[in-house]
Amino acid sequence: MKIIIAGAYAIGTHLAKLLSRNDQDIVLIDEDEERLNNVTGDYDLMTVHASPSSVKALKNAGTGNADLYIGVTPDENMNMNSCIMAKALGAKKTVAKVNNYEFMEPELKNLFGKVGIDSLIYPENLAAYDIVNGLKMSWVRQRWDVHNGALVMLGIKLRETCEILNEPLKDLCKPESPYHIVAVKRGDETIIPRGDDVLKIYDMAYFMTTRNYIPYIRKIVGKEHYVDVKNVMVMGGGNTAIRAVQMMPEYMNAKILEDDERRCEQINELIDTDKVMVINGDGRDIPLLIEEGVKNTQAFVALTGNAETNILACLTAKRLGVRKTIAMVENIDYVKMAESLDIGTIINKKAIAASHIYQMMLDSDVKNTRFLMTANADVAEFTAQEGSKVTKKKVYELGLPHGTTIGGLVRNGEGHLVSGGSQIEAGDIVVVFCHNINMSKIEKFFN
């Protein structure tokens, strides 16, 4: 598959990393030679030093034969215009990153499609969705809904109160059990567990279950004492913060702390001020936090453009007794540090946006895919095709690559967990967890 990425910035380089693992034919276009040089040593791709707005550059990059053209520069006009040109030159599918939420209105989809832009990506909206999902379940670090919630994957940090520590998984995850543990992150290591593996304190365990068993999972991991989130403090009044407070359910109240007075005025014009209070101040100011009721707040969300500020603010909030903290960490280099400090949920817009685009390059019928940055792994929903390899044998007989596990499947809209003796049928939507595996190797089982 030939993929052209315009923009060697954060999203483009992260996307190149994901795609290069799958031996794709990747071309990266950027007008800054230094940015291109920073990428070429790490990934298997070709670079073109030119502006994505140049028709000549697009032709030289082979856009006419491209299966997917992706515009992810910081300039939304360049992204959209280059997608229009790429489509006219023969690219099969185009996607553009935009900074204006108005472009995401459903009625505009056909309009953009007619001019040559097949899909739009608004990273702030994707990040806001993840943030609100995290707030709805204060005891969960990561949540991923499969097929509209028929199955749910929960990433949970295990503490002393967990009831299932140090027991072999073969005794915990039986065929009749209401959950499967599909992966474990232990320190820097990601484990696709086997029957003799055990869970240890401070592991990040990924559970696959159905919605009705979420309370049971909460009990066995010892998180029943975590209070539900009703009051939220948000530090930073950028677009991600605006989208997040607009998505919050009715029962949540939010305060936005923004140190730019002019931005505070703009925020007041954009949001429902009956539900959200905007405060002009610095979220690292401890007396201010106390004055604004941080001790009666169940969640603190740090969304400034500075990773260090967000990490420090979350640590401060934890010291003041806030149980749930979420930090936006845009610098990939800081993600591991943030994890080691145990600050809570980490949001990285570039990784979220790249994951969203990533699924477009998969050949088989893939409904959804997600790169879990914390676990350095992929989770994908594959649809089993008639006559495909997965429908001919039971799961334990399939010979799936090492580092792969099937977490569950959705059949006729209903979620089911999968064991070794399960039989996958044509039309089933199957959730596959992959660590250090070329996704094309998994696709072959479903085509």
From TrEMBL:
Its domain of life reads Bacteria
The segment(s) forming the RCK C-terminal domain are 141-223, 367-447
Query: What keywords are annotated for this sequence in UniProt?
Result: Ion transport, NAD, Potassium, Potassium transport, Transport
In what residue span(s) does the RCK N-terminal domain sit?
A: 1-121, 229-347
Q: Which InterPro entries match?
A: K_uptake_TrkA, NAD(P)-bd_dom_sf, RCK_C, RCK_C_sf, RCK_N, Trk_Ktr_HKT_K-transport
Q: Which Gene3D superfamilies match?
A: NAD(P)-binding Rossmann-like Domain (3.40.50.720), Regulator of K+ conductance, C-terminal domain (3.30.70.1450)
Identification of the protein by name: Trk system potassium uptake protein TrkA
Q: Which organism is it from?
A: Marseilla massiliensis
Q: Which gene encodes it?
A: trkA
